[in-house]
Design goal:
This protein has seven helices and twelve strands. By secondary structure, the chain is α+β, with helices and mostly antiparallel strands. The chain folds into two domains: 75 residues, Multidrug-efflux Transporter Regulator, Chain: A, Domain 2 (Orthogonal Bundle), CATH 1.10.1660; 163 residues, Regulatory factor, effector binding domain (Multidrug-efflux Transporter 1 Regulator Bmrr, Chain A, Alpha-Beta Barrel), CATH 3.20.80.10.
Length: 279
């Protein structure tokens, strides 16, 4: 430190605040924090009175406040404007925390789903009885689905409805096969893609929605695309022989989609969910 001149070199200033010389050069270029003296040879020197200013900048940057916001804050800074600035930043952090909580919940829901079904990666077509709570869905009917293209296109239409409303599709998706079509020649008539809505969106979205009511469901895991009705037909036949009858729309819940495909497995891994009444 050149005490006799009461100035600090750029290296001394950077070391004092534990930042890099390149950071100080960048601050100079954007007009955030300029050295008091700049020689023609490019050497930069800072006065001792600039230390508190850089200290404040460094503190705010450690709080992830954007440089442009810091620059505006430091222009004509007063105690009143500083209190208002901090209040605004705290309010923004509160919003970010709420968003992070939602994102954590979305990820946790997806993690639970994968963990729950991990043991069934080798398909076991063994029907089981399972209880489900009420599930509100975004539902978009297919237009003659018989290949992955229309399947993905319809699902993404439902996906956009949810994301445009400010939510993430993290609570399950798949295909709905309508109850009235189960006895028809074309079992896929009226079917479509669905995405489960988060509970916090239950009262916010009413268009394009469908309710899967709480109750007992006969479920079965299977590999296959939803437009291949054979697994569902086998399950319905099994149900008929065990005194169960479908009493509502069937969910073909996708668990492991094409992002999990291998050289050996080229179909989705799903769970059929058939609401039942007891004969």
């Amino acid at each position: 430190m050149t005490n006799e001149k009461a100035v600090l070199s750029i290296s001394e200033m950077a070391k004092l605040h534990k930042i890099s010389r390149q950071t100080l050069i960048h601050y100079d270029k954007i007009g955030l924090f300029k050295p008091e003296i700049t020689h023609q040879n490019g050497y930069r020197y800072y006065s001792l009175n600039q230390i508190p200013v850089l200290r404040e900048i460094t503190f705010l940057r450690c709080s992830n406040i954007p440089l442009e916001d810091i620059k505006q804050h430091l222009e004509n800074r007063t105690p009143e404007s500083t209190m208002a600035f901090y209040a605004g930043q705290i309010e923004q952090l509160d919003h970010q925390l709420e968003r992070l909580k939602r994102q954590k919940q979305y990820l946790k829901s997806r993690q639970i789903t994968y963990k729950q079904y991990y043991e069934y990666q080798v398909c076991k077509e063994q029907p089981e009885l399972q209880y489900f709570p009420n599930r509100k869905l975004v539902f978009i009917p297919y237009n003659n689905v018989n290949s992955p293209g229309p399947l993905h296109d319809t699902l993404m239409r439902a996906w956009r409805l949810i994301t445009d409303a400010g939510f993430q599709p993290a609570y399950g998706f798949g295909t709905i096969i309508r109850h009235k079509s189960l006895s028809q020649e074309n079992i896929m008539e009226g079917s479509g893609s669905y995405i489960v809505l988060p509970e916090c969106a239950d009262d916010l979205m009413t268009a394009n929605t469908l309710l899967l009511p709480a109750g007992d469901y006969i479920t079965m895991y299977k590999y296959g695309m939803p437009y291949n009705p054979k697994p569902l037909e086998r399950l319905l036949e099994w149900m008929s022989g065990h005194d169960y009858s479908p009493c509502g729309d069937v969910a073909d819940a996708c668990i492991f989609d094409a992002s999990f495909y291998t050289d050996e497995i080229r179909e989705d891994f799903c769970q059929l969910q058939v609401p039942i009444r007891y004969n």
